[in-house]
């Protein structure tokens, strides 16, 4: 009997999934911030921010978020990493500090810069931006709630996190930093995402939208998935990577044959799995079909003339607020300079044969029986609009499990 080929372990070395938003902060006093909220299920006390950034007409209002807290009746710790000899982040030197020591300067000076959330939304008397560093999201959110004003132009950077809710993949934009933008900065809603492609990834062109549908695999780590324990009883810290099948789009120019050819060449895979890193933009417009006075039916125009409704009220009532559009539009592959300082060459970040197709066929992707799924549902989170209710207790459960 032929020996079965051993599957390659999934990892995210060289993987990128980040975002950058530039636009106006949209602050809703009843929704954007939750300060010192108490969980209904535990002793957890938390702060959260669910911030809409108005990135302009093309991109729309894009939501980003942050959440952090502590247990009132437990010993709270913060996981950090140190610095190397040159002052850079040393990810191999990982350790933990007490939650109560998060402002101790003697401790903070040895912690790597990437452990901090950085906020620069105020200026000093010399018109220079004042940067505040926070080791914990709980404190960063409180500072934002007291200092970030509605309509302030900001630049937000962070990491994309993928979760599963009700069998649908959700994309969360977790904040790492917020700054005042520079004068040259233009409004945008951009992301950079690594993904795995197979021979089925590129679909048939949508001629109305002028896009190719691109279905790729995103790797995210779960402690529990489809009712399966991915920690193997606690022995595997953090759980295992799950390949989530996520839909993107790639825009092409219908008048340019080369544009269509580039899409086919870029995303076509002959066999196995190809790793590619692409830049893209979020399109999260309101998708509102605005009614004008000429569009009003004659009977409604008569009501306006009678004074039963003002013209503004009638237009508002007759405007079709269809479902919000959410798209992740890929624009181009990432090019990176590689090699030593004296001989750097540009390289498209696309690597064939990263995995075989069998490497992504995993036992724990098979869903268990319905009665075993309740624990999974409690650990999943959902990103919603400001008109929706967020299950913060479910979000807390996922943070506590992390």
Label the structural class: mainly beta
Radius of gyration: 24 Å
The total beta strand count reads 22
The fraction of residues in strands falls at: 35-45%
Helix amount: 10-25%
- How would you describe the shape? globular
Structure annotation, total helices = 7
* Main sheet characteristics: 14 strands, mixed
Order of helices and strands: EEEEEEHEEHEEEEEEEHEEHHEEEEEHH
Please report the distance between the alpha carbons of the first and last residues: 42 Å
Name the poorly predicted regions: 372-389
Protein name: Phage portal protein
Region (Disordered): 368-392
Biased composition (Acidic residues): 370-392
Short description:
With 402 residues, this protein is mainly beta. The chain is 15% helix and 42% strand.
Helices and strands in order:
Elements: E1 17-26, E2 33-38, E3 44-54, E4 61-71, E5 77-83, E6 89-98, H1 105-108, E7 117-123, E8 129-134, H2 137-147, E9 153-165, E10 168-179, E11 188-197, E12 211-222, E13 224-225, E14 228-229, E15 240-251, H3 257-267, E16 273-283, E17 288-289, H4 298-306, H5 311-318, E18 320-321, E19 327-333, E20 335-338, E21 345-348, E22 350-355, H6 374-379, H7 392-401
Parallel strand pairs: 7-10, 15-19
Antiparallel strand pairs: 1-3, 1-9, 1-11, 2-3, 3-4, 5-6, 7-8, 9-10, 11-16, 12-15, 13-14, 16-19, 16-22, 17-18, 20-21
